[in-house]
Write a structure and sequence with these properties.
Two copies of one chain form a homodimer. By secondary structure, the first copy, chain A, is α+β, with helices and mostly antiparallel strands. Chain A has ten helices and four strands, in the order E-H-E-H-H-H-H-H-H-H-H-E-E-H. In chain A, helix 5 crosses helix 9.
Amino acid sequence: MMRPTLEFWYDFSSTYSYLAAQRIESLAEEAGVGVVFRPFLLGPIFATQGLTAAPFEQFPLKGQYMWRDLEREAATLGLPFCRPVPFPQSSVLAARIALVGLEPGWTPAFTRAVFTAQFGRGRNIGESSVLADILAGMDLDSEAVIAGAQGDANKLRLRRMVEEAQARGIFGAPAFVAEDRELFWGNDRLERALDWVTGQARRSELPV
Amino acid sequence: MMRPTLEFWYDFSSTYSYLAAQRIESLAEEAGVGVVFRPFLLGPIFATQGLTAAPFEQFPLKGQYMWRDLEREAATLGLPFCRPVPFPQSSVLAARIALVGLEPGWTPAFTRAVFTAQFGRGRNIGESSVLADILAGMDLDSEAVIAGAQGDANKLRLRRMVEEAQARGIFGAPAFVAEDRELFWGNDRLERALDWVTGQARRSELPV
């Protein structure tokens, strides 16, 4: 039997994607599930819905709550937390770099490092020097990687990824997609998504 | 030592409040926590944020996802689920009636019954006959209760409840408030809110 997989869709500027990125690999490993990393951009998707900013930016009460909730959740999970300034940060270059790492296999480590830099240490991942430091710390040739990430073919690849996210009905991050069609939204649904792909969910009670 | 309590803020038209209402009493009992029922209305709070509809109504993708997620969550919890038509329904009369039941103590049972009628059986709780049936099923004098609920004093009481919700920074439902100040939003945070009031949460790592 083939090992089941779960797609992990994330935007590097998404706060709850930070929590999911730090949890998903160990939880998936325990469940015997492979994780398919899918870095994308939420901005173009918000735009098609007529949103010019994330919901928590548009509604101050929701935004204020989100930071407190993140702080509490990070403490519960034992993760460092530091509210980044500025926020939100540009996640385009980080997403492009993450795509370059898919074939050589360093995307998971890069993803964790970028999220920790931003939400654990308050660094600005919109600055290419911050991303170059992370790549160098992973023993990669940061200059070459960034040049490849900024190439036209890779830029197009990220646009295709956004289109694929839209085709899957993704409207927020993190999102998890099982079997190309079953969508789960938010860090709080990671366990449910894993249960779904391993057959632990009560699907029999649901309409197809 | 006094038994700790948790405030449960809910709007009868809120989908995830249905799930919370069916879970909160048994979970709180296990944790040794008392539940303070706080029926309120989300509409006036959305209005002060410039929203004319709930977020899931404004964004079709989010709305479509919400119904699928609810269906899955209800199956996981073993709760009946039936998408109500029309939706959203008017929750004003149900909220007024729930307030009347606070002193005599039947609000928890009434709350569960109203949510089950709407989201478990697809009935329209905006119709007073549906609510009258529920009250009668609880051996209450439905005519007298509804008359009291529609009295000026009780209408004012509901407006005060909405003001109190706003003062607590509530922007969605269900919401849980611990110790008059710590806010938790969403059915997914019920366990965290209970951990908070029983002192199981890692508060020491959080700024006050």
